[in-house]
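Lab notebook, bench 4. The sequencing result for the construct came back, and we need a structural model before the next group meeting so we can plan mutations. Quick request posted to the team channel:

Model the 3D structure of this chain.
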Amino acid sequence: MQNDKYTNICLEDFSETSMEVTLVHMGREDCKPYHAVSATRTEYIIHFILSGDGFYSANGNTWSLGPGKMFLIRPEEPVVYYADTNNPWSYVWIGFKGMRVDTILKNCGFSKNHLCLPAPAPDEYMSCFDDLFEHRALNFSEDLYRESILLKLFAILVRHHRKLTIKDNPEQNGYSDNTYVNLAIDYINKTYMQGIGVSDIADNIGISRAHLNYVFQKELNVSIQNFLIDFRMHKSANLLVSTLMSIKGISKLVGYNDQLVFSKAFKKKFGMSPKSYRTYKNNQGKLSDN
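Done. Here's the predicted structure in token form:
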């Protein structure tokens, strides 16, 4: 835990080291009963409650908070937080700003509607505060060092949120459903010619077939199996019209070793065989030229 020499200390006026994310101020306070703060800030601030109890009010809501919790103050939003009268809290805080802050906070689990969250165990993050308190000199090398510790602290918070998310939903691995869909489509685009299946896609992005199908149904309203088939069918339809390649060659090029299986899938998709589709599209082109 924190050394006594860092009790009730505030460090501020740090130089801005990066437009992406930079430390503005930090500190620790063992509050007295009735200690209250009412303010609107221009930076983001996270408070980590070490002991005792208190209350945080923002956006018309009030939360009763104690050890193991953290709360976020957002810029330009009026807030009030105050210590319990019988068991006043002690906390550490860190203020920061930058272009990457919104993305970082989202990955920590914070949002406009989620300002209070479970915090990691103090022994996970207090080493960062100890390090920051030790490196308080206002010079460039210390500025860079403090920035690295700030990023380390955020990494701890992101990892903690990921653990909680996985505990609640074992399939979730830190990425959004939309990200999994984009990763899968990127993999399909690069490897569809190799005869890959749904299991190959799921294995590549690190989730189960069931969860992969779930995210495709949720985001695109189509199963992953049908998406893969449609992707190959549209690729083959384009090749039938734009090249003189044989149907057997096209079927292999889009990942079908069996031409018959390919032709059945194509007919199911477009209502005609690959040969008829080529003839039909070629005749359409001739009519448009006349």
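The chain has a mean pLDDT of 87.
Will bring this to the meeting.
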